[in-house]
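Follow-up to my earlier ticket, as requested here are the two runs.
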Amino acid sequence: KDQLAFMCYPNFQTYVNIRKIREKFREDPQRGLNAILTHEIGHRFCPYDLVTSIILKHNIKKVIEGENLPYNTDTAANLLLNLFADESINTILERKGDEDISWAYQQISKENDNRLWKVYARSMELSWKKELLPKNTELDEEETKASEELSQLFEDEVFDKSKWNERIKTYSSIMCKFLE
């Protein structure tokens, strides 16, 4: 796999691509590994289990069906679910004072300048009140508005599962416009 790491359900086994982490976080591979491992453990709590994943993915598909997507609905739904879960996990970690997560996103942002990444990272910047994107990164009006709307989804208790279905629908309706 080309991912930095991933967790398999239902046994919550976590796999880490050490080579990829060393490449991505050349400045401090150990700090990058710590950030990635801490993040991956968060997937035990978000999306929590296979059933919750299925429900959230179903809600995403209902929102994005009929949208002009660059790939099939299933692939898009998986990506949107992962982005939502990642942003939820990372927001919790940031609120708990984990400095490695924001550092990792600063490193990753150096190589990502597509619209999806800019909206995703800027929404976390607004939520966390930290710079993640390189200073010269510019967002257009649509990207700025989307970032602001996304950041509002993460203002209160992020791990409140009773709000996930509505949040994932809103999240998906915003982010699907930026899939590339």
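Run two:
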Amino acid sequence: DVGKDKVKIFYIGKTSKPRPIILPKHVELNKQLGEFCGLYYAEGFNSRRSCRHITQFTNSEPELIKQFIKFLEKYLFFDKQNLTFKIKFSKGLTNDISKEELICFWKNELNLDNKSKIQFFCDSKISRKYGQRMMVYFGNTLFRGILDRLIELVCQASLSDHNVRCGFLRGVFAGEGCV
């Protein structure tokens, strides 16, 4: 039983066993939702052509990663244990800092326990001056579809609702740093 204010949803794929997700039955369209959607719009993986099953948020700022996770937990009842964390780093960075130090840094910053899944890989697309980024990753087709629809609704609502529009723009600016 998940309670009166939540719903448990399954997506049965062809090759994998179903992983249930628990979501609120209702999500209030407000400034906080607008900010979350703006942040994801700016820093999330928005491609609908490939990898439609991936929800991914990448940034080098721990505060933005924490903000993204906090929203997932608080408003969408998402369990942090269902997320995978990937540290992406530039080739030259491993000469300056060890993998263990990076993992320790991000575990402390994001308040992750030892059960949290943290992967580590080199990304040749990251220039040395940017060093490393944290990618928060969740693979679930149904959740991604719901998130995409939520962003569409927020964008539509922002045309007429000042608070939603302000929240959305705040999220975009926080994610992009500049537009």
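The only thing I checked on run two: Strands lie at 6-9, 21-24, 54-59, 84-89, 117-122, 132-139. Let me know what else you need.
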